[in-house]
Amino acid sequence: MSRIYEALQKAESDRKLDRREPEPRTPEASVKSAIYATAVATAEEDQASAPAEARSYGEPYVTPVDPNALDLSRIPVRPWALSLEQLPSLLERGPAVEQFRSLRSRIFELRDISPLKTIMVTSGVPQEGKSFISTNLAMSLARHKNSKVLLIDGDMRRYTLHQLLGCESHPGLADYLGGKTSVTEVMQRSDSFEGMTPGTAAIAQNLTFIAGGNGGDKAADLSGSPRFGELIRLAAPHFDWIIVDSSPVLPVSDAVNLARSCDGVLLVARSGETKFPIAQRAQSELKASNILGFVLNAVHEQPQVGSYYGYDAAKP
Amino acid sequence: MLGHRALTVQDYLNILKRRWWMIAVPAIIFPIVGYLLTFLVQPQYVSQTLVLVEQQKVPESYVKAVVTEDLSGRLASMKEQILSRSRLQPIIERFNLFANGRLSMDDRIDLTRKNIGITPIQSEIARTNGLPGFFISFKANDPRTAQLVCGEIQSLFVSENLSDRAASAAGTTEFLKSQLADAKAKLDEQDARLAKFQQTYMGKLPGAESSNINMLTTLNTQLDAATQALARMEQDKSYAESILSMQQAQQVQQSQSTEHGAVAPQAQQLELQQLQAQLADLKARYTDDYPDVVSAQRKVNELERKMAQAPAAPTVPASSAPKTTDSLNVQQMRAQIRAMELGIAQKKRDQAEVQAQLRTYQDRVASSPAVEEEYKSITRDNQTAQAFYDDLLNKLNQSKMATDLERRQQGEQFRVMDEPNLPESPSSPKRSVFVMGGLFIGLALGLSFVALLEYLDTAIRSERDIWAFTKLPTLGVIGLTGEPEPVVAKRKLFGRSSSDITAGGKPLMNAGG
């Protein structure tokens, strides 16, 4: 087990070194992903064998910041009900898949410029599609070469990601930030469920989720807690990507607090809904952070895309 | 996004695609509303008639038309007359025009006036004078009324023109007549003045000069003859006197032969008389230097001296008075002399008369130039008056002829080309105009509404918007639903409706906090 872990670590460091190389689909990479897949499978086995042990963590978890402190094998596995309708990036093909794929490519390009692992997704006002974007982006990233992705629901007031994933919302981030639980306790992974396609299964296996938890009125204080940064530092070595969904910037300050610990911020704008003054104010709120750019959500006018996929879909 | 950043054609197309129904709905509704409105608006029927203007039939060179004013001007004044209240009111009352509302008569007259149209024909063929004709039209709510009123107005025009022309011609004739009377009076006055002048200056008038000169010559001759006759008669008289005195002397000698010395003086006296007579005779024929005259003068002088020396004898007055003592001879002589004296007196009177006449004629001839000047001025006035009178007379004749022409309706007149038509369909409201207007208004309204909405809408819709307002790159563009069914996406012609449906079907899609 420890050998496998060492192999994983080695692979991770190798990738960091090879970051400048544009073409990931080399024979070498495929070998690596094979190893990765094996490692995940093994971890799953281990996890399944010791669930009771993982649940025994009851007392507040004090952090020694040590990469080895986070034992991925302890992450509980829970039943998820992924919905294809709400998560179009799970599909084999389709416009949404391609759209998230191109978003992913852009993020890869950005990573070539500066180190980028933790990405926060936010927007100016509610109801612009932050959760949709963040979940689908996380899945899209997870699909790519079996990258390991951590998805955190940073919105402790109106946590909704668990609904999309169809899983429990407790314990969540609020519990961790409040010092009630340990890192591994708030994390959860997907159990296999009925109707799971092989693609979905692969994605689900690469995805680790931290639910929002009920922060309530304390959400602002919790978001200012240094434990969040700690969490990121703890998790960072074990994951390729950490996607943080957060509350909107303008009504509450949670997102701004969380953004300090993140490498980059993605702003979501809903086409036809988001007013440009809102977008500008959200931008100015996040001045201190590294704004990667906008994701334009719910666009009506996409004339060429439709016809292209129409052609593609017509093929047997 | 209108007005917040520069838009490209694609943006406009997107706006159109997004809001086409906002333009389309009013563009469909308003024409329908316009079409329905045409049923509410009261229909208007227009009846029209064409009146042609015919030139006079007799050539202008034969009879000059009295009315030469341009037709357009005449038409304008005629229109004013016909559209006057007094003309229109009976028509309005007869046809009960515009009686639906509670309009005052003034308003009804105004409305009627507005509905009457008079348009001259603009002919391509240039005519020397005036227009070839004009249209009369009337607009009313029902076709029959329109036709009737149009006919009424047309007949008003025709009769007005006729009476106008006749009145004009008659007026001209009347005027000329009165002028002619004036001119005649003036001419008569001039004639009277001329006659009086001629009377006053009879014989002094320019034409009498030659006769005056002739008369003067004749009178001169007469005067000469009279003077000569007078001289001869005086000579005869003196001769007769001398003979008488001789005879008296002889008688005295005979009677005094008895007396002494008495003869001598008487003889001397007689001699003297003889000598004197001789001298006078000589003097009459010769000058004083002639020797016979000189000698006769000397003899007379000597005799006179002798007689002066001799004592003055008691002289017998040698009067011509007949004396009883005189002999018959003497008496005869005396009678003869007496007759001569009478003749001389007569001649002298004649001479004076002739001289007086002569003076008169001289006077006439002398004053002739002054008279001539005045005469000329008078005759000139007379001629002017005469010419004026003739001219007027000529004009009057022409005018009478023109009046006759008008009376016989041979002059310029209005001919009704088309009787007023009975309009079949209303001229207003025009359906097509209402529908087009509705379409236009609908489009304009829709476009302005869309423009307003676009201006108020500050929503971000595209990558370009994001770049324009935040200068941040757009990393991804996610479709509304992430539509998994490409066939549906292909079918999206107008994009909106189908995506709406799918969005409605999946409320959580693209949503979340």
UniProtKB/TrEMBL annotation, chain A:
Segments carrying the region annotation (Disordered) are 1-33
Gene Ontology cellular component annotations, sorted alphabetically = plasma membrane
According to the record, the signal peptide region is none
The family database entries (CDD domains) matched by this protein are listed as: BY-kinase
Superkingdom, according to UniProt? Answer: Bacteria
What ranges does the record list as Basic and acidic residues composition bias? 9-26
Q: Which GO terms describe its molecular function?
A: ATP binding; non-membrane spanning protein tyrosine kinase activity
Protein name per its UniProtKB record: CpsD/CapB family tyrosine-protein kinase
| Native source species | Tunturiibacter psychrotolerans
Q: What is the lineage of its organism?
A: Bacteria, Pseudomonadati, Acidobacteriota, Terriglobia, Terriglobales
TrEMBL record, chain B:
Q: Name one Pfam family in it.
A: GNVR
Q: Does the keyword Membrane apply?
A: yes
- Descriptive protein name: GNVR domain-containing protein
Q: Which residues cross the membrane?
A: 20-41, 433-456
**Domain Polysaccharide chain length determinant N-terminal residue range list:** 8-84
Any coiled-coil ranges, and where?
173-236, 330-364
The record's subcellular location field reads:
Cell membrane
GO CC terms of this entry:
plasma membrane
Which GO terms of the molecular function aspect are on file? protein tyrosine kinase activity
**Top-rank taxon:** Bacteria
Record's keyword terms, sorted: Cell membrane, Coiled coil, Membrane, Transmembrane, Transmembrane helix
Q: How does it sit in the membrane?
A: Multi-pass membrane protein
State the InterPro entries in the record: Bact_polysacc_biosynth/exp (IPR050445), GNVR (IPR032807), LPS_length_determ_N (IPR003856)
- Chain ranges of the Tyrosine-protein kinase G-rich domain: 377-451
